[in-house]
# Entry
Amino acid sequence: MDTLNINNLHDVHKEEITQLAKKMEKCYYFSQNFTSDFIKNIIIEQKYTWEEYQQNFWNYYKWMPLAWGIKRLHFHSDENMYKWHITNYNKPYNEKLFCIYVNTYNLFDDVYRDWLEELSPRLWVFFYDSSNTTFYILDWWIEGFLDALVEWYEKAKKVIKEKKDIELKEFYQKQLEILNNK
# Structure
């Protein structure tokens, strides 16, 4: 197979290839800021550079759905300068952080938050907004945090299933008692 000779391309295509090469170089250098292969691969696949103020990573991690996604945003406490602010955080800040909203009702059809706040001190979370179940994570801790979140999700699924099984058993026992007393 012949290799592509850029000199034989139309000027428009030459410019597109040149721009793509420049962007991919930025992507590569941006990805080197992360230790996680998970994050590096997303950056390269999505062609993210450090220039974007909003990056939407995935809507799931492993088998855990995250309906609002895994986002990386530039947060700033100056409301006049930036679009994204950390809710319920009162200290000055200027950080690019991963933002993960954990909607327990969406995950379980139940408002289940047990142990969720325990993820915050265990892992280097920049801030956990407990009123909104939203985590703000520094770049280098994102993969470890997501792994711990999946562990929490699996534990919570098991507890909720056991709780629902007990409720269902109690319901049927009451129904049986009603039938036996007739």
Observations:
- The CA atoms of residues 12 and 27 lie 22 Å apart.
- Helices lie at 11-31, 37-46, 104-108, 119-122, 142-180.
